[in-house]
Design brief:
Blueprint: E1 6-8, H1 11-22, E2 63-64, H2 70-82, E3 92-96, E4 104-106, H3 124-130, E5 136-139, E6 142-144, E7 152-155, E8 168-173, E9 178-182, H4 196-207, E10 213-218, H5 224-232, E11 241-246, H6 285-293, H7 296-305, E12 314-322, E13 328-336, H8 341-351, E14 365-373, E15 382-384
Helix pairs in contact: 1-7, 7-8
């Protein structure tokens, strides 16, 4: 059988035309708030004119009283979720400000993974002392961790979709101190219980070994003031930070679903072999790139209609064969980090609309097209508002 060449498009060339068009998932356009300025200093014996200072805007529905607890915060999140009030312009999780009547404001963009959120548990430290295995996270972008019998957390503030591809590290704030747990390893006996001043060094030690997304939770009676104090100490932006709540101890999750397979969609061994005596065609790279650019709108629709498990993005490599007439005859994914059947089928269907000039010389042309699906406009939020 002749040694057929495969046109492999450079990922950088294709990225400029295709990957950006696939990055269409957007939530929470972020801005910044304006804190009130310091009081004017008056010179002795001379009265200075005063200026009106505008207070930062705030939504009373996001307000928490000065003595609120973590359990009250969860009730506020459920109320906002029922009213579809998920969006915030502040790009941070929690604000403490003397200009608001309640002193505490939940400024976070919300991304509730389970509706309604369960009530915050009481005496969380007792569970943490008896259960030392891996944790499991439910997020809007998918599940993190494979152990379903340990402590399960439900994230309810926004993270970037790519955060679901990293292991999770969780901080449990209790009346005894801070417990630290992982989604990919059992708890270390020497790190069972941390004081606030130990949190930063402990996270730095973990960061030297792996990248992770950080989740913070607490038991129902934890004061918001204590939560704020912990959030202030976290190493953002080195790690994305989100808030979460623990499910009840008796909650049991089903095992994660196995990845779907379809031989017509995925072809890790490449396209079907051709007959030995079939001549090989050729076409200019510029014609291929121009044709791909023409279907950008279709690929956008694929990503925007995909379910949450595909929103984290990733890299795929599409293989397709162009026949003598310029039409696509075969197509499949030879590489796929996402493993989402609906998204894969949709992307492949867009190739059916490619219109390429007939190969010259006449004959089939095999092409490998790398795509990097990277959602834009979604980023982490600062732990506390400045």
């Amino acid at each position: 059988m002749p040694n057929r060449s495969i046109k492999k498009l450079n990922a950088f060339t294709v990225y400029a035309l295709v990957a950006c068009s696939l990055a269409v998932l957007t939530i929470s356009a972020c801005g910044s708030s304006t804190e009130s300025s310091q009081p004017l200093v008056r010179a002795p014996l001379e009265k200075q004119p005063t200026e009106a200072v505008e207070s930062p805007p705030f939504d009373r529905r996001r307000m928490l009283s000065v003595d609120s607890r973590f359990g009250d915060l969860i009730k506020t999140v459920n109320s906002l979720d029922r009213q579809d009030l998920h969006h915030s312009d502040q790009r941070c999780l929690l604000r403490h400000s003397a200009v608001t009547p309640g002193n505490w404001l939940l400024e976070a963009d919300l991304a509730v993974a389970v509706r309604p959120l369960p009530e915050a548990p009481a005496e969380l430290s007792r569970r943490l002392e008896s259960v030392t295995g891996k944790i499991h996270l439910l997020t809007l972008w998918g599940r993190i961790g494979t152990e379903v019998g340990g402590i399960v957390l439900v994230a309810f503030t926004t993270t970037s979709p790519s955060s679901a591809r990293l292991p999770a590290v969780a901080l449990f704030l209790t009346e005894r101190g801070v417990y630290l747990r992982h989604s990919d390893q059992d708890a270390e006996p020497t790190m069972q219980l941390l004081q606030l001043e130990d949190v930063g060094p402990s996270l730095a030690k973990i960061a030297s070994q792996k990248a992770f997304t950080l989740y913070v939770t607490a038991d129902a009676a934890t004061p918001i003031s204590a939560l704020y104090d912990l959030l202030q100490r976290l190493p953002y932006p080195r790690h994305e930070v989100a808030l979460a709540v623990a499910l009840a101890a008796e909650t049991r999750l089903p095992a994660p679903l196995a990845a779907e397979t379809d031989s017509e969609v995925w072809c890790p061994d490449g396209l079907p072999l051709l007959l030995e005596d079939l001549p090989e065609g050729d076409m200019p790279r510029a014609d291929i790139v121009a044709a791909i650019a023409a279907i950008r709108g279709k690929t956008q629709a694929c990503v925007s209609s995909a379910d949450a498990s595909a929103a984290a993005g990733g890299r795929v490599v599409v293989a397709f064969r162009v026949g003598a007439s310029g039409k696509v005859e075969n197509r499949c994914l030879v590489e796929d980090d996402i493993k989402n059947l609906a998204l894969a089928k949709c992307i492949l269907s867009t190739l059916d609309e490619l219109r390429l000039p007939p190969p010259n010389p006449t004959g089939p042309v095999d092409i490998h097209l790398p795509l990097r699906l990277s959602p834009e406009g979604i980023s982490g939020q600062r732990p506390v508002c400045e």
